[in-house]
Design a protein that fits this description.
Blueprint: H1 11-20, E1 25-29, E2 33-34, H2 74-77, H3 80-88, E3 91-94, E4 101-106, H4 109-118, E5 123-126, E6 131-136, E7 142-146, E8 149-152, E9 158-159, E10 169-170, H5 173-176, H6 207-222, H7 228-243, H8 251-263, H9 268-282
Parallel strand pairs: 6-10
Antiparallel strand pairs: 1-2, 1-3, 3-9, 4-6, 4-8, 5-6, 7-8
Helix pairs in contact: 6-7, 6-8, 7-9
Length: 284
Amino acid sequence: MTHPTTIRGEHLLAALSLAASGVPVLPLRAGKVPFGNCPRCVDGACGGRPNMKSPGACACPFPCHGWAAATTDPNVLTSPEWARTWRDAAAVGYHPGGAGVTVVDLDDAQAIAWARETLPATRVVPTTRGEHWLYRGAMPSANAVRPGVDVKSSMSYARWLGPGTGTMAALPDVVRALVVREPIPVRPAAVTVSVPGGGGKCPHRTPTFLARGIAMAEQRISEAAAAVHNTVFGVFLAVLSTHGRCGCLTVAHTERLFAAAQAKGESPRHCADAWANALIRLGL
């Protein structure tokens, strides 16, 4: 990965150079978003999610979205099907895990300060707002592992911003530990749940309305395809804004919501924090 930074209009040449060195690449449009990379899926026309985490979100005959589009095959990169994407590309992306690399994406000065105190020195690539720290070795990817920090490796993509400076160090255990989830309990009994009011009757709705609302909230969490943290917080906020002041919520209701969130990989601590933040936001 020792290639020069590109400018608009030279993205395909840079991609071919990277691919020749074994780095799987893909074009990115404005906003660092992938294209749909086959004729029927261009610009996401098929409805497939551009940021999908696995192939199969659409019915096209080969993976063509997000990281799954990354390739080292020059015939694919220069094919007529990809011509429009390179013409309209705003940047080059790559699949770090496919290149045997892990990117610790530091989004701001606070995250950079944390990395300098916590992580071993390695190759650093400046970004618009922060830095990419590159380590040799692949691992699972995860967003928001701590404030301002994402980990991009397997089944993820990153923007190519140049080779960076410094010697790339081996992937350390401290980075691997960032994406380790706490075990998911059968029920969130270990978490202290604050329920405003607690068990009263809802004065403005029927019990059926509450039951349907909780069921819909569980479904929204369970169907979250990305941004699970934000989805969980939004659901908690919606439930509390409707029922947080009338006393109809019970511990059983909140346990159901916590269980749905934990089934999506949220830890008990994250659930408790999201619930507490929703209470604070609503002044409850």
